[in-house]
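Hello K.,

You asked for the raw outputs rather than the summary table, so here they are, unedited. I folded two proteins back to back in the same session to keep the settings identical. This is the first:
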Amino acid sequence: MAAGGWLCGSPEGSGGLGDWNQTWHAKTPRFTWCFEKTVIAWIPCAYLWISFPFYYMYLRYKNKSYIRMSHIFKIKMVLGFLLVMLCFSNVFFVLWEISQGIPRTPAFFISPAVLGITMILAMFLTQAERMMGIQSSGILLIYWLLSFLSAVVMFSSKIQHGLERGFLEDPFHHVATYLYVSLVFGELVLFCLVDHPPFFSKAGNDPNQCPEANSSFLSKITYWWLSGLVWKGYQRPLGVDDLWSVRKEDSSEEIVTWAEKEWKKYHSRTKQNKESATFKKGQKSETGTTEAEETEVLLQSEHNQSRPLLKAFWSMFGTYFLLGTLCLVICDVFLFSIPKILSLFLEFIEDQEAPSWHGYFYAFIMVLLACLQTMFEQRYMYMCLVLGLKLKTVVTGLVYRKILIMSNASRKAVTVGEIVNLISVDVQKLMDLIIYFNGTWLAPIRIIICFVFLWQLLGPSALTSIAVFLFLLPLNFMITKKRSHFQNNCVVKYATC
C-alpha cells in the first residue's frame, strides 16, 4: 500500500493498488487505475526482463546463421519503433502537464517509461533472433500476448471512463491508448507468423524436409505442422515417399558421432583418474601398505565403468530432459488446480448473492486450465519420445560400432542372442525409463496432494482410501514381479536359440 500511495497518490479516493469491492464484489468488475498503470502494465515487462538473460544465452548457443531482412521483420521493427515513440510521447506529455500545474502522480510517467524501455528490449531480441536464425519466437510471442491482454484491460477502462465522463476530458490519453492497443495487436499477429529459413541453411535444399523446423511457435505447440500428413493419409494410403526426411540433428550419423565423441572425452577423464589413483596406491604399498587397498580401488573403478557413458548421455540430453520435466511439473500444477476451481464454482452455485460473472469466470478458468494442462502434457510426451528415440539410436549405433572393432576372441565370448537382446529389449527399457522416470519422484507427491484434497472434503473418512492404497500396493508389486519373471524367461529362451 505504501508503494501504491507513492506511485499513485489517492486522487478521487481510488489511488490504491487494489479495491476488492470494486473488482470482485461488484456486478461490473473494474480495476483501480493505479493497478492498471502499474501491476497489469508491468506484468509483461517483468516476464520479458526475467526471461532475457536465459533466452539470450540460448540464442548465443543456438546460432544457425542469420536470416535476411524479410517484410515481416521490417514491419515488426516499424511497429516496435512506433510503440517506443508512443510510450515516450506519453512520458513527455505527462511531464508537460505537470509543468502546466495539472496534478499527475508518478505512475503516469513511470509506467510508460518502463513500457518504452521494455519495447526497446523486445526490438533488440527481435534483431538478435534474426541474426541467430530463429524463425519463430515463443518467448516474444508470449510477451506480446501478455502485452495485448494488459492493453485490452486498459482499453476497456478507457472506454468505460469515456462513456461516464466524456471522451474529450482527456483526448491525448484516449487516443494514445487506442493506438497502443492497435500496434500491440499488430505485433502479436506478426509474431504468430514464421520468418524465412536461415540464409545458409542446408535444410532448405531438401524438397521433402520435415515441416516442424520451418513452422511457427503456435504450429509447434498445437502440432498443426503434422496436419498435412494426416490429411494426406485420410485421402489415400501413405507410402514411403510420403514420409519426411530425417532432420540432420536427428540422424543417426550426427547423433552417434556426437555420442562417441562425448563418451571418449569422459572415458579418458575416468581413465586418467583411475591411473592416478592406482599410482598413489602403488606408492603406499611400497611403504608397507597392504595390497588390499589397491585391489579395492581397481574393483571400484570396474564397478563404475558405466559412469562415463551416463555422463556423456547427460551432457547430450540433460537440458532437453529437464525441459520436459518442467513441462510435466507445470502440467501437474494445472491438473491439481482444476479441482480447486471446481470447488469454488460449486460454492458460487450455492451463494445466491454472488455476482453472475463469477460463474462465467470460473468456467472460463477451468476450460483454460484444462487446455494448458493437455498442451503441457502432450509436449512432455513428445519430448520424451523424441529423447527416447535419440537414446535408442545412440545405444544401437555404439553397439554396432563396438561389434565392428571387436576381436575374434571377444566375439566368441558374446553370443548373437545377447547382442540382439541388448539392442531390442534393453534399449526399449531405456526408452520406457525416459518416459516413466519422473514418476518415481512425482508419484509420491501426487499421492500426498490427493490425500490432502480428500481429507479436506471427507475428513477422517479419507483414511479408507489410504487403507485401499496400502492393500493394493503389494498386489501391484507381485504382478510386476511375475511379469518381469516371465519376460526374463522369454529372453533367455530366445538367447539360447
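The second followed immediately with the same parameters:
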Amino acid sequence: MEDYLQGCRAALQESRPIHVVLGNEACDLDSMVSALALAFYLAKTTEAEEVFVPVLNIKRSELPLRGDNVFFLQKTHIPESLLIFRDEIDLHALQQAGQLTLILVDHHVLPNDAALEEAVAEALDHRPIDQKHCPPCHVSVELVGSCATLVAERILQRAPEILDRQTAALLHGAIILDCVNMDLKIGKATLKDNQYVEKLEALFPDLPNRNDIFDSLQKAKFDVSGLTTEQMLRKDQKTISRQGTKVAISAIYMDLEAFLQRSGLIADLHAFCQAHSYDALVAMTIFFNTYNEPVRQLAVFCPHAALRVTVCGVLERSHSPSLKLTPAPSIHPNLQAYLQGNTQVSRKKLLPLLQEALSAYFDSTNIPSGQPETEGVSREQVGKELDRAGNSLIPGLSQDEEEPPLPPTPMNSLVDECPLDQGLPKFSAEVIFEKCSQISLSESTTASRSKK
C-alpha cells in the first residue's frame, strides 16, 4: 500500500487521464480506508496503463479533526504525506479537460459537486439508494455495517493475491470500528461483516486483537478535547440543501448541556453558519450515561424564524420514526434544544426528516433564503404543510417502517449507537429529564403541542 501511494502522488504530476476514487465528505475512517483499498485494488487489477488515485474528500488541514484516522494511519505505518486531499487536486479542471473518471465509494451522491456527476463511472456504497439524486452510472449498494466490508469482498473474491497485511489491517480495523466491535447487542454487524472480518483474520493471524483495536480507535475517535466549537461542528458533518437553502447536520460527542454552556457559543454558531453559508444548523449530541445507556439530544440553531419553526415542527410531529422529543432549556431565541426519547433514531434516520422539512418550508413560504426574518412566525402558518410532510419521506429515501434497522453509514458511523470513551462527560438521563420537567415550555412549543 505504501509503495502504491507513493506512485499516486507522482502520477499527479503527469498530464494524463486519471481515475479518482473519491470517499465521502465526512472522511471518517470507513470512507478513508474504503477509498485507499478500492483504489489499490483497481490499480493492481487493471491491465491497461490507467492511473487510479484515492482522494480524501476533505482539506488536508481538516485531517487532525479526525483523531481515529490520524491514529490508524500511524498504527498502520502510512505517512500522511502520501495521502492526496481534495484541496490538492482540481477535479473540475480535470473534468473540463476530459481527463477525469470518478469512482465514488462510501457514498453515491454528490450534493455539493453536482457538476462532477457526468464523470462518475461507478459507485460502491452501503446505504439505501437515493433514486432522486443518484448519478447515471452503475451503483452497487448493499446494506452492510461497513463499506470496507464490500471492498474486502471485492478484493478477496476477485484478486486475493494482491492483499498485503497493511491493506488487510486497514480493512479489518475499519470494519470492526463501524460495526461496533461486532457486538450482537448493538446489531450493526451483518453476517457479511462478520464473515469478512473472520476471513481477514484467517489470512493474517497477527492482526490486532479486536477489542484492542476497537478500544484504541474509539478512544481516538471520540476525543474532542482541545477542539474549538467550529472544529467540533466540522468533525463529523453532513449538509443538505434545496433551492439554495443549506442545512448543516453535525454530530457532537458530549452532553448537550455542556455543549450549550461553552463560552461564546451563540457567536460561534453564527460565525460558523455565516462562514459556510448555512441557513440552519442541527447538532445531534450523543453520549452514554452512567448506566451505559445511549443519550441523544438535538439542538436546532437558525436565525430564520419560519425555517426554524418548520424544522422543529417536522421533528416534533414525526411518527415514522418518532423521535419522542422533549424540549430542553435553551439559551437563545434562535436555538431550540431537545432531549430525544427514541435513542434508536440516529443522524442517518434524521436526514430524511430534515429533507422533508425543507420541502415543507418552501411549500409554506416564499421568503428568499439568506434573509433572516425579524418577526415571529406562528406554527399555524406552516401547520398544514407539516401535517402532510412530517410523516412522509421523500421518494428514494429510507423509510424506517418499511426497512429493518440499518447498519451504520459512513457519514454517521460515530453517531450510530457507538459506545463512547468512558472519559467523556457523564450526565444521567434521569437527572436531565427531572430538570426539564421543572421548566415551563416556551409559548411556541406549548401552542404546537396543544394542537396535536
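The chain has 16 helices and eleven strands.

Happy to rerun anything if the numbers look odd on your end.

Regards,
P.
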